[in-house]
């Protein structure tokens, strides 16, 4: 894709205006999601077996209508819409997960989020992650830091894996080589990263593949909060490829991130790479 060596590519790209657009739209979309939380609604299975609900569809419809109307020239990638390959030729692309953590919504757990990012030539340049049930709103844009409910946030300073607060699937943290840790999970992958960004958790690891829409918005938030986000080999995540898939995820402060990647390279078990 052109321009990947120089992010972002457009000097006149209205980053602050785009973040303001995301913040307003994602907050309104979260209000739509909350109308379904704890109520009765239709649930069905899409190809691959993952659940989808009336809430997913309603939030996706709102985000698509508002964002594409405001930015006609931007590409679009969303979990709940057929992929439009024209996004691959666009410099700016909306990457959206209408409800990340649909299982949490279904079970009445306040751990689902509405996520939207603008990816510029392969890298998230601004993003918003909103947990409407807990009223936690995370946002960031390149070079401007990250916030939670408007207050600047920063990753924690913990440098040791042993005893750390880790977010992820417990089944992948089998000792050895993993040391004893406080492991918890959240159905929303984006929420896990947001909790790392604000210092509530020390790290998040996923050894199974994730989709671009799971990670893009939370990626920029975590990095702008001082964290490092990569795959299990330590490589930065590049978005808006044809498959829109990331092989794995490691997110933490730089010191802890380096230790996790070293451990993984030295032979921690790898989970099957399914989205």
Tell me what you see in this structure.
With about 280 residues, the chain is α+β, with helices and mostly antiparallel strands. The protein is about 30% helix and about 25% strand. It contains six helices and 16 strands. The protein has helices spanning about 15-35, 55-70, 100-105, 190-195, 210-225, 255-265; strands spanning about 45, 50-55, 75-80, 90-100, 115-120, 125-130, 135-140, 145-150, 150, 165, 180-185, 205, 210, 230, 245, 250. It has a seven-stranded mixed beta sheet with strand order 3-4-5-6-7-8-9, with helices on both faces. A five-stranded mixed beta sheet has the order 11-10-12-16-14, with helices on both faces. It has a two-stranded antiparallel ribbon with strand order 1-2. It starts with 14 loop residues before the first helix and ends in a 10-residue tail after the last helix.
Please summarize the sheet with the most strands: 7 strands, mixed
Specify the oligomeric state.
single chain
Identify the overall geometry. Answer: globular
Structural class assignment? alpha+beta
First-residue to last-residue Cα separation: 23 Å
- Topology, number of strands: 16
Gyration radius, to the nearest Å?
Answer: 18 Å
Unreliable stretches (pLDDT < 50, length at least 5) are: 1-11
Work out the helix count. 6
Order of helices and strands: HEEHEEHEEEEEEEHEEHEEEH
Strand order of the largest sheet: 3-4-5-6-7-8-9
Strand residue content: 15-25%
Helical content class: 25-40%
- Name the average pLDDT: 92
């Amino acid at each position: 894709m052109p321009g990947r060596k120089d992010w972002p590519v457009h000097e006149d790209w209205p980053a602050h205006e785009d973040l303001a657009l995301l913040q307003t739209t994602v907050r309104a979309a979260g209000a739509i999601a909350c109308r379904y939380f704890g109520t009765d609604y239709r649930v069905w299975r899409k190809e691959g077996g993952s659940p989808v609900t009336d809430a997913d569809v309603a939030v996706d419809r709102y985000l698509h209508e508002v964002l594409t109307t405001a930015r006609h020239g931007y590409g679009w990638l969303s979990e709940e819409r057929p992929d439009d390959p024209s996004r691959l030729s666009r410099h700016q692309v909306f990457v959206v997960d209408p409800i990340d953590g649909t299982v949490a919504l279904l079970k009445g757990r306040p751990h689902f989020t509405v996520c939207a990012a603008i990816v510029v030539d392969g890298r998230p340049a601004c993003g918003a992650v909103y947990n409407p049930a807990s009223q936690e709103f995370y946002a960031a844009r390149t070079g401007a830091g990250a916030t939670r409910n408007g207050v600047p946030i920063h990753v924690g300073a913990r440098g040791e894996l042993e005893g750390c607060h880790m977010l992820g699937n417990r089944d992948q943290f089998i000792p050895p080589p993993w040391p004893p840790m406080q492991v918890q999970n959240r159905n929303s992958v984006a929420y896990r990263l947001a909790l790392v960004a604000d210092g509530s958790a020390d790290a998040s690891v996923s050894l199974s593949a994730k989709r671009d829409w799971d990670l893009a918005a939370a990626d920029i938030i975590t990095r702008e909060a001082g964290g490092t986000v990569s795959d299990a080999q330590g490589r930065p995540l590049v978005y808006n490829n044809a498959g829109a898939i990331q092989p794995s995820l490691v997110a933490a402060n730089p010191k802890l991130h380096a230790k996790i990647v070293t451990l993984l390279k030295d032979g921690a078990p790898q989970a099957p790479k399914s989205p």
